[in-house]
Amino acid sequence: TISQAIKEYGNIAEESILQELIQLENMGVWKYMDNNEIQNVIKQGAVLLPATTIIKMKHNANNEPERLKTRIAVCGNFELQNDNIEYESPTTSIAIILLILDYAAREKLKLSTIDITGAYLNGDAKTSHYMQLNKTISNILVKYNLTLNKYLTPSKTLVVKLLKSLYGLRESGRIWYELLSNTLVEYGLKR
Asked: Picking from 154-158, 177-181, 182-186, which range would have the lowest pLDDT averaged per residue?
């Protein structure tokens, strides 16, 4: 939990959380909602999805602690099912991966991989989702930016409208797949 991480790692945990929150803000992942906006969307039947925070110590090749990594995600399992949205995203089968590795080995080709930081955060949300940040995360954000005080709910949490796809949403994988596919097609590749 966040409390355990802060207890164990102190300021390093808070800095890691703040770093993740700043990345999310800089990428325009959400918009803060005031209490009137929150009440209006709840009256319209919206569900406030809880946020979850994953904090993990990353280790180097020698298994020595390197840095603390935080990921804020939405608990998409609380989403209402929408039959008009396609959630599935294609994945590569192990057989295809083995075929590529075999071909590369036979042809003595060099393979490379890439890791796209915050990949899901690049895709725009296709439907409206509202997420309630917990008290600890809300307090860290308010401490970082005092103007957010006006968005605190009576329970001292912040509620945000998601503008981008976020880890945990059911359709995030599909949104990322479509964005990546369309971008690759724009560069001349074919499906």
From this structure: 177-181
In angstroms, the CA 113 to CA 25 distance is 28
Q: Using alpha carbons only, what angle is made at residue 165 by residues 130 and 17, rounded to the nearest 5 degrees?
A: 80
Closest listed residue to residue 125, CA positions, set 182, 90, 74:
74
Cα angle value 17/21/23 (rounded, 5°): 120
Contacts of 190 by beta carbon, 8 Å cutoff, 6+ apart: none
Is residue 125 within a helix (H) or strand (E), and if so which, with residue range? none
Query: What does the block give as tokens for 61?
Result: 């090749």
Give rounded-to-5 percent helix, strand, coil for the chain.
45, 20, 40
pTM: 0.78
Residue 177 to residue 86: CA distance in whole angstroms: 12
pLDDT tens across 92-133, in order? 789 988 999 999 999 999 998 887 777 777 778 878 889 999
